[in-house]
From TrEMBL:
This is histidine kinase. The keyword Phosphoprotein applies. It holds the Pfam family HATPase_c. Residues 312-530 form the Histidine kinase domain. GO terms for molecular function: phosphorelay sensor kinase activity. It catalyses: ATP + protein L-histidine = ADP + protein N-phospho-L-histidine. It is an enzyme of class 2 (transferase). Residues 148-219 form the PAS domain. Its EC number is 2.7.13.3.
Length: 672
């Protein structure tokens, strides 16, 4: 069967430029065509596949049409090839006597009288092509029917069903060749009912004869499976089914049916039973794995909830610490009494410890202010060797294994150094009698084998100790904030929480492995840097205020924070205008000119970022300093906004303002 789906038109118009014009019209209608020069070429092309033929009536004058007639008569049952015949006298037999001959020859033909409008040709051609497509679809359906019939014939032959009949009055068995094959007999061998009984396996003979007796007694269908032993001693399974026939008196005198060798099916069923048992075992194992993964998910959700709670608490603490630190710093600068200075220094030291504690809480909550950039992790670890050795003491041997190729990561280098120190100190505390601490760096491309990480390149820092290790319960809670196995006063329980938060916020992960009595390994995965790693830039220590007096718009919804910050700014000599909301700040900006906008980030109704965007619509070059309790500015809108983390000292506030005013001054100079 021809499977060609061609929709190309065949054009036969031997006079003048008729063929070219027809091809151009069809092309304008989006149809492909081929121009032929004679009937023979038309027939050859049509046999290869085409959508329809466009022919002028003069092409049929004084030519041999037997080839065309043969092509039309030899078409497969699905095909009725369409013709469009261009005539000068239409298709009416009265006006065009030749039309009758053409209709009889071509069959599926549409007459189009010349001259005609191109739209008429396109319409008729489209209809012919639509009909050809239906023929193609009919061909597909016909082929499908034929395929299914062939499959049915193959299935029946492959089933090797044998036919049999048993005369109950004489117990005479009549078996077909296939039936004999089911019992291991050749077609030319005799096969009596006694021979059949002798082949049935002794263990199945009783059930087989009971089934025959029940069918003859009640008329129920005969359906039984049993083993039979072939003459060569091999054992096979057969399924025998049948029904009774009754004579005119209603007596059951004949049993007829089919037989089938089901040895392969029985073997498959046995295999299936074994597979089902194995599958059940696998399901049980997977269920246990799923329960373990669910437990891990619950643990992750618990840590996420703890992180959200911790971040919120830390943010509130920062708001409380900001006026405390600022006021203490301001009072410390204004007093000359030595005893008061010592007391204030103690209070400032305590506030610094509180600030460090809050920073660790924010690190666990993944809300710390990270300045991620490409960092050569290999160089960073190598540069910390002396510091780590001093931190762990002389009783612990430090071994650093660094790959020759640099391992660059996208991370905040300062936070990474703090994380490595936390891991080293934890390892030290796990080895009170001494031991060995190993730090390794490498660059690894991972696929989906590391849960929780996106496949791709990573820098890996592996920290391994030979300490006491952790049991499963301790390991499961190791990164929870404030969880510690150390004694009272020996740890905050935030070291591993901080490392976990840094890794997660950087797009990596912290993976802990530990065996009680056999040490612990911490794997810190960090996304590999796509840019060239650079050493961290150290700000100059010789910074000094330039002494300018600035007009500053200070915005914060917390009155304590706002008033404390205003006092520090006023003490620097600046002019301060305070606003308790974004709306009030915009009102002040519309009525007054300011040198810089200093605003809190998290405020009701309008955040600091939204305020900065609206303020820069009023004045595009307005410097903005954002004061925030955590790093929620890490979106694209906050990249051009300077940030100052709460709490802060007076010098930190002054430095942040001066640094933000430097580019503003440069812009004004360039504009001048």
């Amino acid at each position: 069967m021809n499977t060609n789906w061609s929709e190309r038109a065949i054009i036969l118009a031997p006079r003048g430029r008729d063929a070219a014009l027809a091809a151009a019209m069809l092309r304008d209608g989006g149809m492909d065509s081929l121009i032929v020069t004679g009937i023979g070429e038309l027939v050859q092309t049509a046999r290869g596949g085409a959508g329809f033929a466009l022919v002028t009536d003069e092409a049929f004058h004084r030519v041999d049409l037997r080839g065309l007639d043969a092509f039309i008569g030899e078409q497969e049952e699905w095909s009725d090839f369409p013709f469009i015949l261009l005539t000068e006298r239409g298709g009416s037999i009265e006006r065009n006597p030749a039309a009758g001959r053409h209709l009889e020859l071509l069959g599926n033909v549409t007459f189009l009288e010349r001259p005609f409008h191109p739209t008429t040709l396109i319409s008729i051609a489209t209809a012919a092509l639509r009909g050809r497509r239906r023929q193609y679809e009919a061909r597909t359906r016909l082929q499908t029917i034929r395929d299914r019939e062939q499959q049915l014939r193959i299935a029946l032959a492959a089933g090797r069903l044998g036919a049999w009949a048993l005369d109950v009055t004489t117990m005479t068995l009549d078996a077909s060749d296939h039936c004999k094959e089911n019992f291991g007999r050749r077609p030319d061998e005799p096969f009596r009912y006694e021979d059949l009984i002798s082949t049935v396996h002794p263990d199945d003979l009783g059930a087989m004869q009971d089934a025959v007796g029940r069918t003859l007694a009640t008329g129920v269908d005969y359906d039984v499976e049993y083993r039979c032993i072939w003459p060569d001693g091999s054992q096979h399974w057969v399924q025998v089914r049948g029904r009774t026939e009754e004579d005119k008196a209603g007596r059951r005198h004949r049993l007829v049916g089919v037989s089938q060798d089901i040895t392969d099916r029985k073997a498959s069923e046995e295999t299936l039973r074994n597979f089902a048992a194995e599958l059940e075992d696998r399901v049980e194992r997977r269920t246990r794995e799923h329960e373990a993964m669910t437990a891990q998910l619950h643990e992750a959700q618990k840590l996420e909830t703890l992180g959200q709670l911790t971040g919120g608490v830390a943010h509130d603490f920062n708001n409380l610490l900001t006026p405390i630190v600022g006021t203490l710093d301001l009072v410390r600068r204004k007093t000359d009494d030595l005893r008061t200075q010592r007391l204030l220094d103690g209070a400032l030291q305590a506030s610094e410890r509180a600030r460090t504690l809050v920073a660790r809480l924010l690190a666990f909550a993944r809300r710390q202010n990270l300045e991620a950039r490409p960092v050569d992790v290999t160089a960073l670890v190598d540069g910390m060797v002396d510091l780590i050795q001093r931190s762990i003491g002389p009783t612990i041997r430090l071994e650093v294994r660094i790959e020759e190729a640099p391992a660059a990561a996208l991370v905040d280098p300062n936070q990474l150094e703090l994380a490595l120190l936390n891991l080293a100190v934890n390892a030290r505390d796990a080895m009170p009698e001494g031991g060995k601490l190993t730090i390794e760096t490498s660059r690894i491309d991972i696929g989906s084998e590391q849960p929780g990480l996106i496949p791709g390149p990573y820098a890996l820092i592996r920290v391994t100790d030979t300490g006491a290790g952790m049991d499963a319960a301790t390991l499961a809670r190791a990164v929870e904030p404030f969880y510690s196995t150390k004694g009272i006063g020996k740890g905050t329980g935030l070291g591993l929480s901080m490392v976990h938060g840094l890794a997660a916020q950087s797009g990596g992960a912290l993976v802990l492995e530990s065996v009680l009595g056999a040490g612990t390994t911490a794997r810190l995965w960090l996304p590999a840097a796509t840019a060239e790693a650079v050493a961290p830039t150290i700000p100059p220590d010789n910074w000094q205020r330039d002494g300018r007096t600035l007009k500053i718009l200070l915005v914060d919804d917390e009155e304590l924070v706002r008033s404390g910050t205003a006092e520090m700014l006023a003490d620097m000599g600046h002019e301060i205008v305070q606003a308790g909301s974004g709306a009030a700040a915009l009102g002040a900006l519309r009525s007054q000119a300011f040198d810089i906008l200093v605003t809190d980030y998290l405020m009701p109704s309008m955040s600091g970022l939204d305020l900065a965007r609206e303020a820069r619509r009023l004045r595009r070059d307005l410097p903005v300093l954002m004061i925030t309790g955590f790093a929620d500015l890490a979106d694209d809108r906050g990249r051009d906004v300077a940030r100052l983390a709460k709490p802060f000292h007076m010098d930190e506030l002054a430095r942040a303002i001066e640094l933000e005013m430097v580019p503003s001054a440069e812009n004004r100079m360039s504009a001048d």
